[in-house]
Structure formats: structure tokens, C-alpha cells
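hey so u asked for the seq, here:
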Amino acid sequence: MKIDDTLVNQVRLKQEAQETASDKKAKAVASPEAGSNGNVTLSPLVAQLKALEAAANGQQTFDTEKVEAIKAAIRDGQFSIHPDKIAAGLIDSVKDLLGTKPA
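ran it, C-alpha cells below
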């Protein structure tokens, strides 16, 4: 099992976009003469952010049925843990992280 931070990155991008939009809005309010012509242009990044937001909204972050099955197994004493698989997954994740880290 690998740890996937795709959703975390998507949320971070969304928050950064909201902060950037808030900064631009504050500047426009502070200096109305700068945007007095009424034309607005958006960067291509906005389209990418909207696509990521739509994708994130359409995805379920976890499988509810699987979570309920695990809860029931734990409650009934049927859940088994495989430490060797957990350790192997953690080691693989660390190797991946170290491999992508700039030197």
C-alpha cells in the first residue's frame, strides 16, 4: 500500500487559487481605476484549477462500504493485521519519496 497525496495537492491548489483570487479582488477594490475598462482576462491556470476542482468534487475520498466492513471485522474480532505487508508498504513509500527528492 502506498500513501497517495493527490487529494492533498488538489486541495492545496484550490486553497492557493482562492487566496490568489482574494488578493486580486482586494487590489481591484483598492484601485478601481486599474480595472475601469470592464475587461477581465483569466490565465490558463484558472481552467486547470476548475477542472481539478470538478474532478475532486466528483470523487469519493474513501470507500464507505470497505470502511464499514473493516469496522465490523474489528468489532467481531475477525480483523487480521499483516505487519510484513505494512512494513513493505512503508519501505516502498519511503523509497519513492527519497527517489523524488531533489539532490
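The radius of gyration is 22 Å. The chain has four helices and no strands.
lmk if thats what u needed
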